[in-house]
Amino acid sequence: MGFSSTYFFYVISLIWLLTFVSNTNAQLTPTFYARTCPKLHSIVRATMAKAIANDPRMGASILRLHFHDCFVNGCDASVLLEDTPTFQGEKNSYANQNSLRGFKLMDNIKRNVESICKNTVSCADILTLAAREAVVLLGGPTWKVPLGRRDSRTASISAANTNLPPPTADLATLISLFAAKNLSPRDMTALSGAHTIGWARCATFRSHVYNDNANATFVASKRSICPPIGGDDNVAPLDMITPNRFDNGYFKSLMAQQGLLHSDQVLYSGGSQDPWVRLYSKSNRALSKDFAAAMVKMGNISPLTGFNGEIRRHCRFVN
């Protein structure tokens, strides 16, 4: 092999290496699918709009799916994986088994995307986009969603049991769990605003309405829904004021000592987050700005990019 051939081989090898490194460490960008799937946003938006028109609670469900995904080993769609004879997913963890829904809707969105852009868009990106559309369709803020995530081939039920904040968590525990994901206490409080469109099962708020010193009228109304024994699957809105609209009603509820979960009310209990709760209760604009910024930050938790992970053909199973 002559000098020119050797040099040519060296240059090609260097270009390949640089491309590999670049792709492996690729940064997320809102324009990632601009050429490969230009209709992606409209497909996700239309499918979410139809689902929420049929069931407004589905917006909160998809938003919750995204949160539970990102807090367990990053935003990689691991939460969507089903158990198999040789694989244990995260759906049956203590934190997930009775609180997550929306998996069929994710199947539907993925199917609609695949019909136009086959083997192109990850389930992780679809879930992130769907969460944004859920907020927008229910009257909340919008934001540019960085894209380019790939899907994991693994899941962790143990991480799902330890990384997700329980409804009984105190303020110090919440701050610690969010800090572990590089989210500040301010991010945490803004993200808790997602509960303005959420509902919770009696099993998650029973101890709060029977054991904590909350608003007496509020407690009485919730005890009628959630008896001391039984009724675990009865549900109540986390925001009593406007449960199907994304606004600052949740924070107004906290200031009135009407937080449905213990982990809600500790955000306004004479502690460090009181000023943020007061701000968001007074200003939808401040809430929208901080929530959107925190959602982008949360969506950037440990994404798989480049040659890591895969583009799942079906969100429930690895390829």
Description:
The chain has helices at 3-24, 40-54, 57-70, 103-116, 123-137, 157-163, 171-179, 185-192, 202-211, 216-225, 249-255, 262-265, 274-282, 284-299, and strands at 199-201, 235-237. It is mainly alpha-helical and 319 residues long. It has a two-stranded antiparallel ribbon with strand order 1-2. Helix 3 crosses helix 5 (123-137) and helix 11 packs across helix 13 (274-282). The protein is globular. 41% of the residues are buried. Residues 7-25 have low confidence and may be disordered.
DSSP helix fraction: 40-55%
How many strands in all? 2
CATH class of the largest domain: Mainly Alpha
The total of helices stands at 14
Structural class: mainly alpha
CATH level 3 topology of the largest domain: Peroxidase, domain 2
Largest sheet: 2 strands, antiparallel
- Weakly predicted, low-confidence segments: 7-25
Numbering strands along the chain, what is their spatial order in the largest sheet? Answer: 1-2
Order of helices and strands: HHHHHHHHEHHEHHHH
Shape descriptor: globular
Radius of gyration: 22 Å
> CATH homologous superfamily of the largest domain - what is it?
Peroxidase, domain 2
What is the CA-CA span between the terminal residues?
42 Å
Counted up, domains total: 2
Report the mean per-residue pLDDT as an integer: 92
Strand content: under 5%
CATH architecture of the largest domain: Orthogonal Bundle
Keywords:
2 domains; Peroxidase, domain 1; 319 residues; globular; single chain; 14 helices; Peroxidase, domain 2; two-stranded antiparallel sheet; mainly alpha
